[in-house]
Amino acid sequence: MSSTSENVDDRLSMLPEDILSRILSLMPTKYAVGTSVLSKRWRYTWTSVTNLDFDYTRRSPNMITLKFVDGNEEKFTKFVDRVLKFCKTSHLNSFRLHISSSGVSQSSILNWIDNAVRLNVRELDVCVIQSELPLSLFTCKTLTDLRLEPSDCDLKRWEFPSMIYLPCLKTLDIFLCENPLAIQGCCPVLESLSLNVSCYVEQDFILNIPTLKRLNLLCISIHDDDNRKIILRLPKLEYLFVDGELCSLFEMEDVSSLVEASISCSACSFDFMWADILNKLRGVQKLTIANFRFTSPLPIFPNMKQLELNGTWESGQITQFLESCPELKILCIDSVDVAERVFKKQKPEESKLIPACMLTNLTTIKISKCWGDTCDIEFLEYMLGNSQVLKSVTIFALENLLIEDDPWFCAQVLKFPRASPHCEIRFRSWKLPQSQESEYSDISEYSDKSEYSDSDEAEAL
What we know:
Blueprint: H1 3-13, H2 17-25, H3 29-34, E1 51-56, E2 58-59, E3 65-66, H4 73-86, E4 94-99, H5 106-118, E5 123-128, E6 145-150, E7 171-174, E8 192-198, E9 205-208, E10 214-220, E11 229-233, E12 239-246, E13 249-252, E14 260-268, H6 271-280, E15 286-290, E16 306-313, H7 315-324, E17 330-336, H8 356-360, E18 364-370, H9 374-386, E19 392-398, H10 408-415, E20 424-430, E21 440-447
Parallel strand pairs: 1-4, 4-5, 5-6, 6-7, 7-8, 8-10, 9-11, 10-12, 11-13, 12-14, 14-15, 15-16, 16-17, 17-18, 18-19, 19-20
Antiparallel strand pairs: 2-3, 20-21
């Protein structure tokens, strides 16, 4: 070994034990254990780590978890057993166990989770094929965060036992659960909850957790005639996220504390269900919405400051939302579709037709996918020509629209009259997705104040 390497090794070895264990705790466990071969000093240093991370999964090119057996299950099992046997810490900060191999035995998985509980684990993240869990998990006195998720290749559901008491649990994420309401009254300080709601169950889904601040619901239905209700008795709720299928009416007895909501439903049984949930969310300050199929008049959102419209939106839908949000400051849109109602610059005598937020409050606009079509051009011309306090417009344009030799799209947009003298327009490039490559690129940025640059100053939101 060179003198330089020896000096580096000496400096690391002189660090206090708690610092070394903290450094190793930031690594995947297999790498932390691998440091045992560096020297005698390092041989058992890893045994003091406070985070354990075991991952035995395989994924397809599109990141779907694959079920597999590769013959190394016995080695993996022995490795986990050895780590838990030699682990010296009395309190685990986190324990992560992700397995998609069907060759790892159920008894081993139960034993490992049980060991984590006996090591006073605080955060537990389990994603495995098997659906049984040790009873000790559901009476763990130190657990603050629990995530239970079946592997993508497994359709089995988790099931809570009859005896549950988790006195310190603040965050619970559980997917494909057979009896999710069993947690009510068993987690006295629970603040964040993610779970699935099976709308085809005959009785109403009633959630009554006085301490809950954040709720993420995945709604699942197999019928179009569901008449069950989702009843939320959550007086401290601040954030609500609804995904899946909008298949039930919502009842919210007290939503005065609700600040943010996100509704992204792939299907809706009836149009009135959209009307129902939007009316319940009138008081939010931030709303994210996707897969919107609502045709009835929108309610007024008097407190709305930020609106995010994910997916493709027709011009009529966008203006409908603008008219319903008089205090709106930030508007984010994925993509503008062919308009059924063409945007036009309003004349001064027609200013009463302009949404109120555009006259007094709207300062920021972001478009995530701009194709350079006529509908994009008309939308931008309308917004720039009528938004009187606008400060920033960020456009992620298709890459070929930002060619330096012929930036026709940028030039056309920059020529539009602006109602606000302080409005700055920024262009960023957006690539069509190829397999799993990122859609967004920072390779170029173009604005009316600077040529192509890599400055992070133009980052939207």
